[in-house]
Design goal:
Elements (H helix, E strand, L loop, with lengths): L1 E6 L4 E5 L6 E5 L4 H16 L8 E5 L9 E2 L2 E5 L2 H13 L4 E6 L3 E7 L2 E8 L3 H12 L4 H8 L9 E2 H5 L11 E3 L10 H27 L4 E4 L6 H14 L3 E2 L7 H8 L4
Length: 269
């Protein structure tokens, strides 16, 4: 069986597919070799496998290029990260064609069609931005804490809406549409309001960029992957954008580990 490993900017995920229910582990180490070895060892241990049952390691992500040809005695092959994103997101969603959006430290956007996977765009706004702003603005360093605060927040105390400026809808934009993130400079928002505004801003940036690329590429389906998809408040903001733009976003099961899953399913490059 093949183990897929995604060595990202902040965490490393390892997955093995050929076990009941699929198993995934996550390691938080900065050194890519140590992280990959630790993730593989933890995966084998937790699955009750022998190391020799792993026939190969499919490695992807920013740190994959630093891996040697073998890891704990298992052969390593490198999978292009955009290929892993595309394969992982599209197969988890059961779609032959889709725009796959990977919400990692930053955000990568990949177009998937039968026989072709293409990186079409992205932004530096992502999970790293979320944590960075949370630390600098609120002194918060954990997603769980930020999300709990956001659940008690009120966007109307932070964001300037189309309704605030125009007094109603503007063209096809409803009054609740954001005209300016953090635009109510004269207001006095609470930390909870700011927490929700940070999550909302990142969700809106990613959603609008994804919708633009979907239209440009002719894709109907937009598949969201990456660890930010596990954040309830983040998912709710995307649901709000669905209603606004009449376009759905798909968050498949195991979306948080789609890139590692895609590496395991992709052929060696």
């Amino acid at each position: 069986m093949i183990a897929g490993i995604d060595i990202g900017g902040s965490t490393t995920d390892a997955v093995v597919l050929d076990v009941p229910g699929m198993r995934v582990v996550t390691i938080e180490l900065t050194d890519p070799v140590a992280a990959a070895a630790g993730a593989l060892g933890k995966l084998v241990s937790e699955c009750g496998l022998r190391l020799d049952q792993i026939t190969a390691v499919a490695a992807t992500g920013a740190g994959a290029r630093g891996l040697p040809d073998t890891l704990l005695g298992r052969p390593v092959f490198k999978v292009d990260e955009f290929t892993a994103i595309g394969v992982g997101g599209s197969t988890l969603a059961g779609k032959e064609s889709a725009l796959v959006v990977s919400l990692g430290t930053g955000t990568a956007i990949v177009s998937v069609r039968p026989g072709r996977i293409e990186h079409v765009g992205g932004t530096g706004v992502g999970g790293g931005t979320l944590l960075g702003l949370a630390r600098h603005l609120l002194g918060v360093s954990k997603i769980d804490t930020l999300e709990a605060m956001a659940a008690r927040g009120d966007l109307s105390r932070v964001n300037l809406t189309v309704g605030d400026i125009a007094g109603g809808p503007l063209g096809d934009l409803p009054p609740a549409s954001t005209a300016s993130n953090f635009g109510k400079v004269g207001s006095d928002p609470s930390p909870e309001d700011k927490a929700l505004a940070i999550i909302n801003m990142i969700a809106e940036v990613v959603a609008v960029l994804s919708l633009s690329h979907a239209r440009a590429c002719g894709h109907k389906d937009i598949v969201l992957t990456g660890k930010l998809t596990r954040t309830i408040q983040f998912a709710r903001r995307f649901a709000h954008m669905e209603l606004m733009f009449s376009r759905g976003f798909i968050i498949p099961q195991h979306a948080a580990y789609a890139t590692a899953i895609g590496a395991a399913r992709a052929r060696p490059q």
